[in-house]
Amino acid sequence: MTNKITELFNIEYPIVQGGMIWVSGWKLASAVSNAGGLGLIGAGSMYPDVLREHIQKCKKATDKPFGVNVPMLYPDIEQIMDIIVEEGVKIVFTSAGNPKTWTSFLKEKGITVVHVVSSVKFALKAEAAGVDAVVCEGFEAGGHNGREETTTFTLIPMVKDQVKIPVIAAGGIGSGRGMLAAMVLGADAVQIGSRFAATEESSAHANFKDTIVNVKDGDTYLTLKELAPVRLVRNKFFKDVQELYQQNPTIDDLKTLLGRARAKRGMFEGDLEEGELEIGQIAGLIHEIKPAKQVVEEIISEYNTVKSSI
After folding, report:
1. Which CATH number does the domain housing residue 113 bear?
2. pTM over cut 0.85
3. What tens digit of pLDDT does each residue of 118-130 get?
4. Where in the sequence is the domain holding 126, given as residue range(s)?
5. Domain count of the fold of the chain
6. Claim to verify: residue 141 and residue 231 sit in the same structural domain
7. 98-111, pLDDT tens digit by residue?
């Protein structure tokens, strides 16, 4: 499968693994890259020295291209970017910030830059900033979403009509059928998070992986929009948030309840009651924990089968 994205990243399949916090370490990134996709290390949950360790281990585990996902609200962003350059990372996905801030710096170092957007407006800003591609992430996605609440399959064609750079679809995609649908609508590739969160190589806690495969339709919900919209599994913490909303809370009230390290507590440490459990709506179609290589193979096989039957 050769297209703009496979050529841009020098990969076999137009499948990008989501750079999820507490889930996307070197084991997952290297496994996806070795399977023919593009693996991403999620820097958002890593201290600088931890990120360096993951990059170095990933380089030893694969000779295929991989990248790093960097939320630009990261407090040690300058140190993170320096490490990426020092370690020779060739692909960076940026999110949660203005793409103008770091795109030129990275491009000058010969790094391919992709920015995550949730609207046409931000896609155009990212293109103007000089990024090589954009990820269009819809309302269905897990983790932190845009405030627009535009669905993936609405967003893809709207963005595709407005930008000249490649478009990667994200949010609600976890199968070959979903991949084909996204590409029919104009996507050049897909970015998949939730399906890879429930893999053997994912660094998520076993409790969280078990939760993912048991999620059903309607078990996730977008909340905390006043802070940063996040899609969560409905657990005790989620119910506490909803109860607080009944009291017309202030921003500070919400921040106090959220506290620190909620996502780590839930996704990495396995606290299913008090932790944040971030996962996408597609989890309702995930029923088994598998090796990442098998996930990639099954997606491509289903994609080809469905495409040939049309």
Report:
1. 3.20.20.70
2. yes
3. 999 999 999 999 9
4. 4-203+286-309
5. 2
6. no
7. 999 999 999 999 99
